[in-house]
Design a protein that fits this description.
Order of helices and strands: HEEEEEEEHEEHHHHH
Structural class: mainly alpha
Number of helices: 7
Strand content: 5-15%
Low-confidence stretches: 1-8, 10-19
Radius of gyration: 20 Å
Distance between the termini: 78 Å
Length: 244
């Protein structure tokens, strides 16, 4: 058998290609996990809407892959795969015969960074896949708010931190269902709580203030545990945080 030595340059090219392939696999895994989480959240919330005698609804979702951009219908902003955060646009989108109530937007590079340990520009020791799930279900929480405004004729939420705290709370409700079905781990719980802490801020005079780190974590835990550990129920989030 002949042995063909590999030059230093070839070796570097092989290593670089291996890293690229690994990155592609990781991004594909994160993409699949986002899709799985959206589908699971959609199933939970539509069952809840049905129990509330409300119509089932569906958000569209976009995962911005590397090299792609997305122009949202709310303000025309063009987002890339590394825009700093996921977001929800409440504008309805018509595709064929289906009307989607709002659009969830997830930039893949940012979501990948969350899983690997960078949350809101800060290092997170406890980050992991469930950090991604918590972000996804937080944005779905804004969609739920939107559905309630239109279907229950609730007054729109006043701008400010209570919108964010309620979305955190709804995310905690969804996470509690994962504990109930036996798929949530202690590491998942810790990742979720820390992700909410990292999402907080202390810019009290900023109109875009989203709540302090402790408020964000407490809102998520209210959704997860319920008041006085009474159990999860979305109504707890609505009662606590709806301001109009």
């Amino acid at each position: 058998m002949a042995f063909c030595p590999v030059s230093f340059l070839q070796r570097e090219e092989i290593i670089d290609e291996a890293h690229k392939n690994s990155g592609r696999r990781i991004k594909a895994s994160v993409t699949a996990y986002i899709e799985e989480t959206v589908d699971d959240g959609y199933a939970y919330w539509n069952n809840w809407l049905k129990n509330q005698k409300l119509q089932q609804a569906a958000p569209l979702y976009e995962i911005i892959q590397r090299g792609e951009t997305y122009t949202d219908a709310c303000d025309g902003n063009i987002s890339s795969s590394d825009v700093p955060s996921a977001f929800y646009c409440p504008e309805d989108v018509q595709q064929g015969d289906v009307t989607y109530e709002g659009v969830l937007v997830f930039p893949i590079e940012t979501m990948l960074e969350m899983q690997l340990g960078e949350v809101n520009g800060q290092y997170s020791e406890r980050a992991g896949k469930f950090t991604v799930a918590t972000t996804v279900t937080h944005e779905m929480g804004h969609w739920v708010q939107d559905v309630l405004i239109y279907q229950k004729a609730q007054l729109p939420l006043e701008p400010g931190k209570h919108q964010e705290l309620m979305a955190d709370c709804f995310s905690g409700v969804w996470a509690a269902t994962k504990y109930t079905d036996g798929t949530l781990t202690a590491a998942d719980f810790d990742a979720a709580v820390e992700s909410r802490e990292k999402a907080g801020d202390v810019n009290f005079t900023d109109p875009d203030h989203h709540g302090t780190p402790q408020e964000r974590a407490n809102a998520w835990k209210l959704g997860y545990f319920g008041p006085n550990n009474a159990g999860y129920d979305p109504q707890n989030c609505i009662s606590e945080f709806w301001r109009s």
